[in-house]
Amino acid sequence: MPILMTFGDSNTHGTPPITERGVYARYDAATRWPTRAAAQLGPEWSLVEEGLPGRTTCFNDPQMGDHMNAVIGLRIALNSHGPLNYMTLMLGTNDVKTRFGASPTQIVAGIAGLVDMALSPDMALRHPNLKLLLIAPPPVQELGPLTAEFIGATDKSRALAPLMQAYATQRGVGFLDAAAALQTSPIDGIHFAPEGHAALANAVANSLTAL
């Protein structure tokens, strides 16, 4: 039975577009892309969802907390589950927040650190032959109630996909540009509409099958 872990931020968690700050919401399993992708892959597949709203590649968030740093979260997840056969990694959206001041190359360096961890020799003992799919999130739009946190983020986020693709090719892992399947919602410029989750699920399932 193949086991898939989807590791990411709010768009892996299933947060819908935000219209009011401070209100928690989450799409149901019939809508979220991880569960839809697993269902498309087949009933023999098992899914581990590891999406945390606000998660960054490697930054402690002074507002949301140090636990937003994926370096901690991924190590815990990799040691909590297993053996994993497949893993998706979709991060970078929160890294383009204005308060981090991170360049696209710094963000991809954070991604590289996570990939190195997942594919390290010690993790290979727990997850032999783990196949990894790196997903570049679609560019953010500076609009809606989250605009103040993402000033100047659009151009940074647009630069991520080509850098991630070049890194994935050199590192020998799978790559998917989510922007080829969907755009962020015009409601908040960050999160995905239900049809975006459906499109991403299809793209992820096809990409995993091709690994």
Low-confidence stretches: none
Percent helix among the residues?
25-40%
The chain-level structural class is alpha/beta
User: Architecture, CATH level 2?
Assistant: 3-Layer(aba) Sandwich
**Helical stretch tally:** 7
Q: What about the largest sheet? A: 5 strands, parallel
CATH superfamily, by name, is: SGNH hydrolase
- In percent terms, what proportion of residues is strand? 5-15%
Strand order of the largest sheet: 2-1-3-4-5
Shape: globular
Compute the separation of the termini in Å. Answer: 16 Å
Task: Determine the mean pLDDT.
Answer: 97
What is the CATH first-level class name? Answer: Alpha Beta
Order of helices and strands: EHHEHEHHEHEH
| Whole-number count of domains | 1
Gyration radius over CA = 16 Å
Topology:
Layout: E1 3-8, H1 10-13, H2 33-41, E2 46-51, H3 70-80, E3 86-90, H4 104-118, H5 121-126, E4 131-136, H6 153-171, E5 174-177, H7 194-210
Parallel strand pairs: 1-2, 1-3, 3-4, 4-5
Can you walk me through this structure?
A five-stranded parallel sheet has the order 2-1-3-4-5, with helices on both faces. It is globular. 38% of the residues lie in helices and 13% in strands. It contains seven helices and five strands. 45% of the residues are buried. The protein has 211 residues and is an alpha/beta fold. The protein has one domain: SGNH hydrolase (Rossmann fold, 3-Layer(aba) Sandwich).
Question: Would you summarize the structure shown here?
Answer:
This protein is α/β, with parallel strands linked by helices and 211 residues long.
